[in-house]
Amino acid sequence: MLTYLLLGGLTSGALYALVALGIVLVYKATGTINFAHGEFLMISGFLAYSLYVFAGLPYLISILGAVLLAFLLGAIAERIAFRPLMHANMVSLVLATVGVSFILKGSGRMLWGGRGDYLAFPPLLPPDPIIIGEIILVPQQLVVLAGAMVVMVAFALFFRLTRIGKTMQATADNPKAARLVGIRVEQVHMLAFGVGAAIAGAAAALMAPITLLYPDIGFSLFIKGFAAAVLGGLNSMAGALLGGFLIGVIESLAGGYIATSFLEVSAFIVIMVTLIFKPRGLLGLNAVRRA
Amino acid sequence: MMRGGKIAVRLLGPGPIGLLCFFAMLLLPLVANPYLLFVGTQLSIFVILAVGLNILVGYCGQLAFSQAAIFGIGAYGAGLLKVHLGWSFLLSVPAGAALACAVGTLIALPALRLYGLYLALATLAFAQFTQWVFLNWERVTFGAGGFRLSRPAFPYFTAGTGTFYIALFVAAILVILAARIIRSRFGRAIIAIRDGEVAAESLGIDLLRYKALAFGLSALYAGVAGGINAMTLGFVAPETYDLFLAVLLKAMIVLGGLGSIAGSVLGAGIVLILLELLRAFKSAQEIVFGAILLSCVLFAPSGLAGYLSTRLDSWRERYVRAFSPLQAGAARDAAEASSSASPVSGNA
Lengths: 291, 348
Fold this sequence. Notes:
heterodimer; A: mainly alpha; two-stranded antiparallel sheet; 11 helices; B: mainly alpha
């Protein structure tokens, strides 16, 4: 029971970690939270489905397609809803991304089905569980875990080693100084929105075979990813990953040992408790305040 | 000649036009079918909600997503007291509103430690938590299916007409009350908080107290609207009070104008009409209201009230929140120098 719950928790936790990574990346680069982040995920999940099921393309190509589309969506969202408001106050920034999220959610519902329409993404591996001693493994969980690890490592290498990654780091540290040394801060913002969304796109293509796809999935994953980001510390990438796995395990254990319904609510409780008692999160740095 | 012109201008102001609309609404039950009457009741409810939310977001500058959930608490409170304890609406609606107000003030207390973005997200989490309680505390709330209520009985009127009048009078009273409150000491204090917390504090305004009062007041409005909504529908279910409604309410006040009572009323009316036109198309509703939010923030940041106040003398308002990106861009350096003061110019 425990190992089963832990493994399930880690699998969903890996997805939450990917969502949280995108949220934190955008937050660090721009100082705002993109409320449309979950909708990027939802749309690219549906796109991966269309490529894989309708167009009959191989799984890997469908994932790449979803990632590319998500990147474009993120970059466009930055251009439309963030750049003109860069110096406006927080209320307008948040309301603009909420507007984008609803436009995307409505579009997803219009294109891929009405309320309550769930699309089942066919699994890559046979769904029969593998039993090793006491441990029950579902093969698709291993695919998700491995895929998530690949994305995380690729992102870490990109962020630490490439020139673009370094300009992003510099902008996150101090936008004014970055501008002084010739970094185009606007481009970095666009890139952060795009890369953040691309990670969400990869997460969507990975999780689609396990969860089902439906238009409201974006918001529920956004909340989970946000809970992970807050728990880990909104300005810490490592915190986002740690928070993601923790949220996954916490909700899985709460669902298994308390009551199934607690699975859904534990993320909200974690958000409220963390914000009230330790707003900086587990690994967050100082100066998270932005009025 | 001049004087006649001036009086004509005055008569086109929000006050006289509002009064005219009120009297027109009084006559509505004489001509309307039950559907129109229901939409009219809904209008009053939306007006109460929008005005209450504008006090918190537009005047006090606190971006909270909890209004729809508190509306739900008001409705559940009123409905459940009637169903479980057999209270009449006369008692249960005020009790539900008081419960909503108490919860709204209580969540404000921890939320007040949080700034901007964090407040938005904490209240969003609270709203989702409330949804979960409505859905899962089945012994009390009857779960996902919701529960039915018997309609209220009125002397002389049918249930529909009676609730219509109650909603109309309550909305009128609460709108006038809000307009008075905004011009009081309390109103000036919360506007000062919106325009700069540090400056407000240095003037001796107790941030915690006034923010909590603003939260409580807006929760009271939402709670009253919730009770009336339960009466009107005769049915309470969780999905009425979800995130979609929260965004709908945001669209009303942004379209009407943040920091404008007349704007809240206008915004509520327009959003209700659009909602009724698109009733059958959930996806189109989401796209339209998302687009309204986005384009108002981008192109008309002070909303309809801001537009009217630059065109018509009688609509000139002092407190419309004008945070156009261009103005803010000009004030960029000042804003970056003092990161806590938001680049807002409040005087139109």
